[in-house]
Design goal:
Helix content: 25-40%
Distance between the termini: 34 Å
Number of helices: 10
Order of helices and strands: EHEHEHEHEHEHEHHEEEEEEEHH
CATH topology of the largest domain: Dihydrodipicolinate Reductase, domain 2
Shape: globular
Largest sheet: 8 strands, mixed
Bound molecules: NADP nicotinamide-adenine-dinucleotide phosphate
CATH class of the largest domain: Alpha Beta
Radius of gyration: 20 Å
CATH superfamily of the largest domain: Dihydrodipicolinate Reductase, domain 2
Number of strands: 14
Structural class: alpha/beta
Number of domains: 2
CATH architecture of the largest domain: 2-Layer Sandwich
Length: 332
């Protein structure tokens, strides 16, 4: 796949480093803001990227690419995705796919109309351990309660406390704990249990942005909580408790580390099928899947995964509404 990257921030830097493990991908171009063009040029030099642009629209039209990777703040995902799809390019869009369901549906409709690939870069559904977790579920009988926490004090939290507004804490750019971390918890739970009947979110809101909060997803006969924090320290883990035992993953939902299965008979088994040790390899499986879809023309698989993204977007909307958090102007 011939990629054009949009963005020059944290995630684009990390993904460029990982490209050496993805021989099926080449990066042909990178687009930044005019302000960040010098940084884009540095990245281009370091990663042998042939073309640099300070306007993503120009890159989409001019560059020799088939797929656009969207690595910009959340509030810009739809604009870049629409422009790329409109120009006949496939899209890998960073999580969350869009600000909410209306935007996610818009992007999804356009991809389907044009017969193009649109993948949300959300690694959880592609991780081998997640598949293992799903296959272990019947062992714990009827799942009754689940608890999934993603606690990650942001490296930008001190700047936020000092009065700055980095994108991940900027409500206007789609920041906040729900959008940044809650989306993982939602994917994790929705992928296991389907669409919830009711959703609520209680949040700590500072300067208009949720820095942490607690999600509740009611699946009817099974209730789940999701604790997310960008302003606190603590362990992250995921637990599914059922009538016959429980499954414990003692790691962040996004890494889906080893799982232990504890049954009523006292037995305990450990499962670790991810096949990688370094945390930065946690994106390998999703990129391999995108490549497979692309090489085989499997739009059906891509769109089934996109349906999951739409469900997650619907949950985001309900959670946000229940906490009284408004979408920024022009995204409502
Ligand atoms: N999958 C994962 O594991 C993962 C991890 C982290 C983040 N993400 C996602 O990745 C996205 C970006 O997050 P981040 O942490 O990388 O944010 P970030 O460090 O704030 O970077 C955002 C980048 O987007 C650039 N940008 C803004 N508007 C642009 C435009 N019109 N054209 C080109 N570039 C533009 C910014 O440039 P300026 O600095 O010049 O404004 C900056 O380089 C978010 O959606 C986030 O949810 C995913």
């Amino acid at each position: 796949m011939k990629l054009g990257m949009v963005g020059t921030g944290l995630i684009v830097g990390e993904q460029l480093q990982q490209m050496e493990h993805r021989p099926g991908y080449t990066v042909e171009a990178i687009a930044s803001t005019p302000r960040s063009l010098p940084h884009a040029r540095e990245l281009a030099a370091r990663h042998a990227i042939p073309a640099c642009y300070d306007d993503f629209l120009e890159m989409i039209v001019d560059a020799d690419i088939d797929t656009v990777y969207v690595g910009v703040p959340n509030a810009l995902h739809l604009a870049v995705t629409r422009a790329a799809l409109g120009a006949g390019k496939n899209v890998i869009c960073e999580k969350p796919l869009a600000m909410g369901l209306e935007e996610a549906q818009d992007a999804s409709d356009l991809a389907r109309e044009r017969g193009l690939f649109l993948w949300e870069a959300m690694n959880i559904p592609y991780l081998p351990n997640y598949e293992t977790l799903r296959s272990l579920l019947p062992k714990v009988g009827e799942p009754k309660v689940a608890a999934c926490s993603y606690i990650q004090r942001s490296r930008r939290y001190d700047a936020f406390r000092a009065g700055e507004t980095p994108s991940v804490f900027d409500p206007a750019r789609g920041g906040g704990a729900l959008m940044d971390l809650g989306i993982y918890v939602i994917h994790y739970l929705v992928g296991l249990f389907g669409e919830p009947e009711r959703v609520s979110y209680a949040a700590n809101v500072v300067r208009g942005v949720d820095t942490s909060g607690i999600l509740t997803l009611d699946f009817g006969g099974l209730v789940a909580t999701g604790v997310v924090a960008k302003d606190a320290e603590g362990p992250s883990r995921c637990l599914v408790e059922g009538t016959e035992g429980y499954l414990l993953q003692d790691s962040k939902p996004s890494s889906c580390g080893p799982i232990t299965c504890h049954l009523r008979d006292g037995s305990e088994t450990r499962h670790d099928d991810n096949g990688f040790a370094a945390p930065e390899r946690r994106w390998d499986a999703e990129f391999a899947s995108f490549e497979r879809d692309f090489e085989t023309g499997d739009l059906g698989h891509c769109y089934r995964m996109l349906d999951l993204s739409l469900t997650a977007a619907r949950v985001l909307d309900e959670a946000r509404a229940s906490a009284g958090i408004a979408l920024p102007d022009s995204h409502g």
